[in-house]
Amino acid sequence: MEPLVVRLSDSVIITLADCRDVLPVQCDAVVTDPPYNIGKAAWDKIPDYLQWCESWIAAASKGCKRQGAFWCFHSEPLVLADIARIIGRHGKPMQNWVTWDKYNGNPTKQCGGGPMVGMTQIASLRKFQDFAEYITYHADDGQWERQSADLWSGKAGNRNFGQERGFIFEPLRAYLDNERQRAGVTRQQIQEATGTQMEGHWFGRSQWQLPTPEHYATLQRLFNAQGGDYLRREYDYLRREYDYLRREYDDLRQEYEHLRPTFHNPGKVSSVWQYPPAPSNGHETPKPVELMQRIVETTTNPGDTVLDCFAGSGTTGIACIRTGRKFVGIEKDARYFEIARQRLERELAQGLLPLTHNMETTATP
């Protein structure tokens, strides 16, 4: 069967095809819910399942930008762990394992068309009930970290920041600690003199901070209490040096900011998400729009392109439309493809975004 491409708008494209026949697709993130191989339907029975996963993950990864997110669902934790390792092998280490609690801990929710009873009410049940699915989130944050570190180790391009610039404020930290050592002052003496435990931040490499003017004056008095001429530099001089290094670092860091994966921190959100199941829409395993919207909003920017290799009923696309992202969906089942097409058309008709509704159907060569 020739792939059928339907362009619902300038920002929404869905394709009827086996994703392996049309990948790679250029995108900013992959957000997908593949078949789980647990026999939900004929399409959910796949021989050599992990080998099949390797094939589509490899193809999808080629089109996803290097710092782009890659999200994948599954109901079996051990299988998803294998899938996560495959995604990692293709350049995207795992950042989070997310548990989707589908029933919010409430045993009175509806499940499979009937009331769900609590585990303790089922006398014959010999294990905990499975009312969760799992999601892995992958992104290559290491690329940004490596480049950022290289800037200050003299390894980035032709820049040479010297042997001691592995730590941005090393010249200032080294000056303070060398003076401390020359004066023979211990960390304990500094704590007692300043009434703080900030000595680790002033003289060590972890979370370094410049002392306040008041604390610097206290250190000067302490270091010179037995005579000597330590910490001779004026505080204003140190502050100017600090500001200079900070500006230089910020300028250089900005050059590499585009390498950092997008992550809009949603605040105090744990890795256990509680969303009720999506209402029936003709697909056996629909996902809630709100869940997909959280994924899309957190790890992409407005205008980014999100790819769903197993578009199903089009829920990822609806989340993209509502949040101002572009969507490319691929689905090989003609019945689900039509469900997705109709749902996306209805969503576009709401006029939530300034999209050009220009449906165009083509067959790829």
Could you explain how this protein is built, in words?
- The protein is an alpha/beta fold.
- The protein has 2 domains: 4-140 and 261-360, Rossmann fold (3-Layer(aba) Sandwich), CATH 3.40.50.150; 161-259.
- Helix content is 38%, strand content 17%.
- The protein contains 12 helices and 12 strands.
- The protein has helices at residues 19-22, 49-63, 77-89, 141-151, 170-183, 187-194, 199-203, 213-223, 235-255, 289-299, 315-323, 334-349, and strands at 4-7, 12-16, 27-32, 64-74, 94-101, 110-111, 114-115, 132-138, 272-274, 305-308, 326-331, 360-363.
- The strands form 2 sheets. A 10-stranded mixed sheet has the order 9-5-8-4-3-10-11-2-1-12, with helices on both faces.
- Helix 10 packs across helix 11.
- The longest helix has 21 residues, at 235-255.
- The chain is elongated.
- The N and C termini lie close together (11 Å).
- 30% of the residues are buried.
Secondary structure layout:
Blueprint: E1 4-7, E2 12-16, H1 19-22, E3 27-32, H2 49-63, E4 64-74, H3 77-89, E5 94-101, E6 110-111, E7 114-115, E8 132-138, H4 141-151, H5 170-183, H6 187-194, H7 199-203, H8 213-223, H9 235-255, E9 272-274, H10 289-299, E10 305-308, H11 315-323, E11 326-331, H12 334-349, E12 360-363
Parallel strand pairs: 2-11, 3-4, 3-10, 5-9, 10-11
Antiparallel strand pairs: 1-2, 1-12, 4-8, 5-8, 6-7
Helix pairs in contact: 2-3, 6-8, 10-11, 11-12
Q: Which architecture name of the largest domain does CATH use?
A: 3-Layer(aba) Sandwich
The CATH C-level name of the largest domain is Alpha Beta
Gyration radius, in Å: 28 Å
Please identify which CATH superfamily of the largest domain we are dealing with.
Answer: Vaccinia Virus protein VP39
Largest sheet: 10 strands, mixed
Average pLDDT, all residues: 85
User: What is the distance, rounded to the nearest whole angstrom, between the alpha carbons of the first and last residues?
Assistant: 11 Å
Beta-strand portion reads 15-25%
Helical content (DSSP H or I, runs of 4+)? 25-40%
Order of helices and strands: EEHEHEHEEEEHHHHHHEHEHEHE
**Which geometry do the CA atoms define?**
elongated
Low-confidence runs = 110-120, 151-166, 353-365
Total count of helical runs of at least 4 residues: 12
CATH topology of the largest domain: Rossmann fold
Read across the widest sheet, the strand sequence of neighbours is 9-5-8-4-3-10-11-2-1-12
